[in-house]
Amino acid sequence: MHALTDLPAPKAADIQYVLCDIDDTVTTDGRLTAQAYGAMQALHDAGIAVVPITGRPAGWCDHMARMWPVAAVVGENGAFYMHYDHAARKMHQRFWTDETTRQQNRQKLDALAQTILSEVPGSALASDQPYRIADLAVDFCEDVEPLPESAVEQIVSLFIAAGATAKVSSIHVNGWFGEYDKLSMTRQLFLDLFDQTLEQAQDNTLFIGDSPNDAPMFGFFDLSVGVANVQTQRHRLTHLPKYVCQGSGGAGFAEMANSILQARVRS
After folding, report:
1. Could you give phi then psi for residue 160, rounded to 5 degrees?
2. Where are the domains of the chain?
3. What pLDDT does residue 146 have?
4. Which of 118, 152, 234, 248 is paired with 212 by a 20 to 30 Å CA distance?
5. CA-CA distance, 248 to 211, in Å (whole number)?
6. How do 136-139 and 124-125 pair as beta strands?
């Protein structure tokens, strides 16, 4: 990983889309700081489309799409995207699977939840689970005492044994049934909303994140950035970001935004 300061200024100045993880990337210790939100607003005001790509639930994503300075939100690790048309006052949603399949998967996940909670002492359903549509989030350090690495691996193994996909974030293990992830739904969003493929947008798009469920994005984007706390997740990452910030969490996000905006001024 190179320092963010090594990102060539001409490339930074050409960025039109900033895709960002939320937890421990935009947030700091579970809070959205004024610094990070201000950086997001500054990017928006500069004409840069900001798109959170998060594992957080549909209920949270509806709020983000409506009230944050963002173009759209990909949620539940790629289960859907939401785009709010402010002029028409209409929410547009696209899910990876149809409603019948989602209902069937929900039943399987609810049964699997009981298995995981009984076999992994100290684990709990994420506090935002009631607002989820397509996945199961098991908390291993957000609102519970941090579990050891062996427990996290056990949760992942139980998901996989049931035929589900499992991804580890900085706070949860998320599991779902379906062949999608953050990258696949981001591809669909760009086709629908921006009328281009991710390959076509590659030179003008930056992704910033911090955790293992961001690995597909780190692997795809040439302009991929990790906030400083990504260093704590190296052992879980199959792909590392190309650049890394000095700051952690929201401070790192603001550092990235400032780098882009300053490069634009100088260009």
Report:
1. -65, -40
2. 2-96+180-266, 99-176
3. 97
4. 118
5. 12
6. antiparallel
Q: Which of 93, 86, 22 is nearest to 53 (CA)?
A: 22
pLDDT-wise least confident of 51-55, 114-118, 173-177, 230-234: 230-234
Q: Which residue has the tokens 């809070």?
A: 31
Buried b (16+ CB within 10 A) or exposed e, 67-100: ebebbbbbbbbbbbbbbbeeeeeeeeeebbbeee
CATH number for domain 2-96+180-266, candidates 3.40.50.1000, 3.30.1830.10, 2.120.10.30, 3.10.20.340: 3.40.50.1000
- What is the reported pTM? 0.94
| Proportion of the chain above pLDDT 70, given as a percent | 100
Interatomic CA distance for residues 151 and 236, integer angstroms? 14
More confident residue, 235 or 156: 156
Tens digits of residue pLDDT in 186-195: 999 999 999 9
> What integer pLDDT is reported at residue 170 of this predicted model?
84
The DSSP letter of residue 92 is E
Mean pLDDT of all residues belonging to the chain: 96
Nearest to 159 by CA among 223, 102, 112, 99: 112
